[in-house]
Design a protein that fits this description.
Number of strands: 3
Oligomer: single chain
Structural class: mainly alpha
Helix content: 55-70%
Radius of gyration: 26 Å
Strand order of the largest sheet: 1-2-3
């Protein structure tokens, strides 16, 4: 049972790390974009209307990225609940999350190797 908990924890940690690594650059890019837009407005390259239009577009992109991240995190949480249960008391046993299906390998495993050196 302890292995099952560790496996779930490790899987969730890896997936969450991946999700967060994808969402980070979008925020940094929007911050840099907003700084650039301010500089262009201050130099007179952009009018106030153009500036506000571009700022609103950048904020919409940020909100869209946050919504996608939230949706992906919810899907990871949902998926983690459907992981199979793995127990090793006595023998290895793999059971579906709902408990309706299980698999327990029996017998022996033989490993045969050959090394050829020319």
């Amino acid at each position: 049972m302890r292995i099952n908990y560790r496996l779930k924890t490790a899987l969730i940690t890896v997936v969450m790390g991946f999700v967060l690594s994808l969402s980070g650059p979008a925020y940094a890019m929007n911050d840099a974009m907003l700084d650039l837009l301010k500089i262009l407005r201050d130099k007179g390259s952009l009018t106030n209307d153009e500036y506000s239009l571009l700022v609103n577009a950048a904020k919409a992109d940020t909100e869209k990225a946050e919504a996608a991240t939230t949706k992906l995190v919810a899907k990871v949480d949902e998926t983690s609940q459907s992981l199979p249960k793995i127990t090793t008391k006595g023998k290895l046993k793999i059971e579906s999350a709902d408990g309706q299906h299980s698999f327990q390998p029996i017998g022996r495993v033989f490993w045969d190797t050959v090394r050829v050196d020319d």
